Amino acid sequence: MEENQSKNIILTGDRPTGRLHLGHYAGSLRRRVELQNSGRFDEVYIMIADAQALTDNSDNPEKVRSNVAEVALDYLACGLNPDIATIFIQSQVSELTELAFYYMNLVTVARLQRNPTVKAEIQARNFEASIPVGFFTYPISQTADITAFDATIVPVGEDQLPMLEQAREIVRSFNSTYGETLVEPKELLPDNSACGRLPGTDGKAKMSKSLGNCIYLADSADEIKSKIMNMYTDPNHLRVEDEGNTKDNPVFIYLDAFSTDEHFKKYLPDYQNLAALKAHYERGGLGDVKVKRFLNSVIQETLEPIRKKRAEWEGRLDDVYEILQRGCIKARAAAAKTTKRVKKAMKIDYFGE
Ligand code: ATP
Ligand code: MG
Fold it and tell me: Would you state the pLDDT for residue 3?
């Protein structure tokens, strides 16, 4: 394995099945931007996984196509910088499909069936017996995406842990069968556990496009406010005097994920920090409306600059597509290098150069 082995390389991405939401921001996007700006990485690849989105949306190509631009706008709005990060579209790098095909030989059906994320997603989509083969094998395609760029670090939310585990297994299997060729990736989870799996506004375990319980990065100030004021909280906290639960309460989990002591100084100076607010809620005497109003201020402050920047980029869609096109070209060149190495290792390189 040559030059790339000693590099620090990031790969991560999102499925263009809808606009990005606070869960994406907390779980992965915010961290990506920090890492991008840290200067610690030699290369940063951000992939819009349209091919993967088609595995469970094959009948809706228009949805996937239109959301490619939406996701790109969300990226640029959050501060991903195309001068540093290579933003590209998965389907335009055909080497990724090629690698996935070879890796399929190294994975058993039983192993895929055991993957907890795949299991949960099959259930959520009511796929059971009718699961498309492409969807079933997407952990393999994800391994192709990661290894094609020799990624060392993959910043993701908690739901992706089994995917990274499976990717490492495939890498080890490949390397032991064909000789050291692929780089083993590591996940990078948010250090704040509230961010690893942000719940939905309805209190369900995960904020997810498919569940319709999201606050989108592009939501207007009014939409955000109304979603927050209608959020699920502790169902047993009926009167202000009642003792409240902050643990399974999404309002407090969002505060865990987004509020800072500065926010308290600015919007709720009666409390020094989140611990003090939680203590009051738990012993009783603090109403939900007050907490939600504070959360609204925090989220508005977080999302306003993103929304503004998004609106600017919306007026420059041609530039957005040009950024994507440049990204695809660059990503393809990198993936082609790896594919060449892979084919050589597998002894399917017949004609020298
Ligand atoms: P879909 O329902 O189409 O699968 P999704 O909302 O699960 O969409 P993905 O595109 O599958 O979003 O996920 C992209 C990235 O965002 C992954 O790294 C994932 O871990 C992270 N992520 C998604 N939802 C959340 C969440 N609620 N909390 C934290 N991270 C999340
Ligand atoms: Mg998902």
Answer: 53
